[in-house]
Write a structure and sequence with these properties.
Blueprint (H helix, E strand, L loop, with lengths): L8 H6 L6 E6 L5 E7 L2 H8 L8 H9 L2 E6 L3 H15 L15 E4 L8 E4 L8 E3 L5 H15 L19 H4 L13 H15 L4 H16 L3 H20 L1 E2 L7 E8 L3 E10 L2 E11 L6 H14 L7 E4 L6 H12 L4 E3 L4 H43 L6 E8 L7 E8 L2 E2 L5 E4 L8 H26 L14 E4 L3 H14 L5 E6 L5 E6 L2 E4 L5 H27 L14 H11 L2 H6 L2 H5 L6 H10 L3
Parallel strand pairs: 8-11, 11-12, 13-17, 17-18
Antiparallel strand pairs: 1-2, 1-3, 4-5, 4-6, 7-10, 8-9, 9-10, 13-14, 14-15, 14-16, 18-19, 19-20
């Protein structure tokens, strides 16, 4: 008699409340595959499981994978929106439209709350009394602008507490090269220094004409009095200011902050283009790749982009000019306004300069999409495509997560193990784990690997039991997520060790070995007692090589870190009559433990500090 499933979807649908909140869909591996929000959870979630012709292929595929769902009720749809953004950013579900780029834009910070303010580069904009300009799309441009301001207005760059520390130390090099007026020595009053700061703020606000006139006048005067070196200096400053000024194209006389957003897409990919307008000037632009479903509308893609992009940026402009109005625009406006601290407006321009700017953003997005299409295809081929190739070689339909293991005992030091994880063909470094071998003495790779795998999967099973015991709202640990395929660095021996461990724990996970040839290069895969050849020019083969090299690198890196901390000892220390001096002499002469193992008795006796008795002890130790 079939058992009733633990989670009965039909029964759980009846329990859904008619309240706003967020719903979370899980697959058979308990992985979160979709997060959404609803004004009524009861109505929205039920729609997924009702037969309808309006469902896209993407939604149909997602629904077929749903094993259970959970939900969190909120007091309002606005709270649901904020929670949805946070959960998508945390879990990155595969069926949500995902923003691929995660960039932090630089700012120029003026520390106006100080008595003697500084102008500096900043990666964040904090809620303090200082002034921030940006965000800018080029860190290089920010550094150039900050350097130019220091040359023009001779503002300090030091972090001294002024005026408290005035006169405590000598002036720095900037004073001697005339790029600072040394307020640290009291050579300039707070009032005079403040005038220079005001001029720098005018410059950052785009008011260049007065400065350009002054520099041109000084250049001419220096030239007339035959001071050509000074004239060249003013000319270079003049050119630098013009270069910065050219980047600040006026787009509006209203001097508002706004982002102009438009997109272009095809069946699987989209590019969203954003123009950043600050104080009425375009200060830069950038584009973002997003993954989309074939039937997703522009409005849906732009909605997902806006929610993800502005949940991760500290600055929200006063206006968004968009290609099309996003879904839930009223609730999004409330959310953005709360983040900014004042009213935010979303506009879909219909005519004039505003519409032309949005069209320009769209054209740029289309250009990037057409230029990057082949690049996107190549990236998919070397990642997801390569995973599919590996799966087809060994006869597995769905390989998304691979774990690979390696053991390192370099130079006769005790063993360590590494676990690296690849998802969709890319390393997932947050899930990497390292193991210091605890139960095995000496260089026994098989026993060491057995310990590593036993600890890894036992830990995972204990985490899973704790999840069931403590409730489904507990966050999944990295050990709880088991792989679709285990890859061992080696052939039959290593594979059999892994299968033995899995059998003892009652787990059924496919295992294959990454076999190397005599030149220590990847040769093929060992699976189900058969060595399977691989096309060495295929993306699947290249991915296997990357995984094998990464597992080896991670193990060696951990091993070296332990050696550097003095936390491991030499196998040679366990040999009678071999102390630290003789151990060093052996490693200096033979370079590796393998060479010591294979050395003849006469060779061992030739080692400085070794006599026949100690050489015989080493020789016998490795031949017992």
């Amino acid at each position: 008699m079939d058992q009733e499933p633990i989670f009965n979807i039909e029964e759980e649908l009846k329990k859904l409340p008619a309240q706003p909140g967020v719903y979370i869909m899980h697959d058979a591996k308990d992985e979160i595959i979709y997060v959404g929000k609803a004004i009524s959870l009861k109505n929205r979630v039920r729609q997924y499981f009702q037969s309808s012709r309006n469902k896209t292929a993407k939604i149909e595929q997602m629904v077929s994978r749903i094993v259970r769902f959970e939900y969190i009720i909120t007091d309002s749809e606005l709270e649901a929106l904020v929670l949805e953004c946070n959960l998508i950013k945390e879990h990155r579900p595969r069926y949500n439209t995902m923003l691929k780029d995660d960039k932090a834009y630089p700012y120029i910070k003026v520390t106006v709350e100080e008595d003697f303010p500084r102008v500096m580069f900043s990666r964040t904009m904090k809620k303090d009394k200082n002034k921030y300009f940006g965000p800018y799309t080029s860190a290089g441009a920010v550094n150039d602008t900050v350097d130019l301001i220091h040359k023009l207005y001779r503002l300090r760059t030091c972090s001294r507490n002024l005026p408290k520390d005035t006169g405590k130390d000598r002036p720095c090099l900037n004073y001697h090269i005339k790029q600072c007026d040394a307020p640290c020595q009291g050579y300039i009053s707070k009032e005079e220094y403040g005038k220079s700061v005001e001029e720098a703020l005018d410059f950052l606000n785009g008011r260049y004409k007065k400065l350009l006139d002054i520099l041109e006048q000084r250049m001419t005067q220096a030239s007339q009095r035959m001071d050509f070196e000074k004239a060249i200096e003013y000319r270079e400053l003049l050119n630098s200011v013009k270069k910065v000024a050219q980047k600040q194209k006026i787009t509006s006389s209203t001097m508002e902050d706004r982002d102009i957003i438009a997109m272009a897409k095809d069946d699987t990919d989209a590019v969203v283009q954003v123009f950043f307008v600050r104080e009425g000037k375009i200060i830069g632009r950038d584009h973002f790749h997003v993954t989309v479903g074939a039937a997703e509308e522009d409005r849906q893609v732009l909605t997902s982009f806006v929610k993800q992009f502005y949940s991760g940026t500290p600055f929200v402009p006063k206006e968004l000019w968009m290609q099309t109005e996003p879904e839930d625009s009223e609730i999004i406006i409330k959310w953005l306004s709360a983040k900014r601290g004042q009213k935010v407006k979303i506009t879909v321009p219909q005519k004039g300069q505003k519409e032309r700017l949005v069209e320009l953003a769209e054209k740029n997005a289309a250009l990037v999409l057409s230029q990057d299409k082949e690049k996107i295809k190549r990236e998919e081929l070397r990642t997801i495509g390569a995973m599919n190739q590996i799966g087809s070689i060994i006869g597995l339909d769905h390989v998304r997560r691979i774990e690979a293991y390696d053991i390192s005992n370099t130079s006769g030091l005790e063993s360590v193990g590494s676990m690296v994880v690849y998802e969709d063909g890319k390393p997932r470094r947050s899930d990497y784990r390292k193991f210091k071998i605890q139960t095995v003495k000496g260089p026994n790779d098989y026993a060491s690997m057995k310990e590593v795998l036993t600890r890894r999967f036992t830990h995972g099973m204990e985490e899973a039991e704790a999840l069931i015991r403590d409730g489904i709202d507990k966050k999944l640990g990295s050990f709880t997520r088991f792989p679709d395929l285990i890859m061992m660095d080696g052939g039959r021996g290593q594979v059999n060790i892994a299968l033995e461990v899995l059998d003892e724990l009652g787990l059924a996970i496919p295992v294959c070995g990454m076999v190397k040839d005599d030149s220590h290069r990847t040769r093929g895969l060992y699976y189900n007692n058969v060595e399977l050849p691989i096309d060495r020019h295929s993306e699947g083969f290249k991915l296997i090589t990357r995984i094998q090299d990464e597992a080896h690198r991670f193990a060696i890196e951990y091993h070296r870190s332990l050696r550097g901390k003095g936390q491991v000892k030499s196998v040679l220390d366990d040999i009678p009559h071999i102390g630290p001096a003789r151990r060093k002499a052996l490693m200096r002469k033979f370079k590796s433990l393998e060479a010591v193992k294979e050395a003849a008795l006469e060779e061992l006796m030739e080692t400085p500090g070794m006599n026949r008795k100690s050489a015989q002890s080493v020789y016998d130790f490795f031949r017992q």
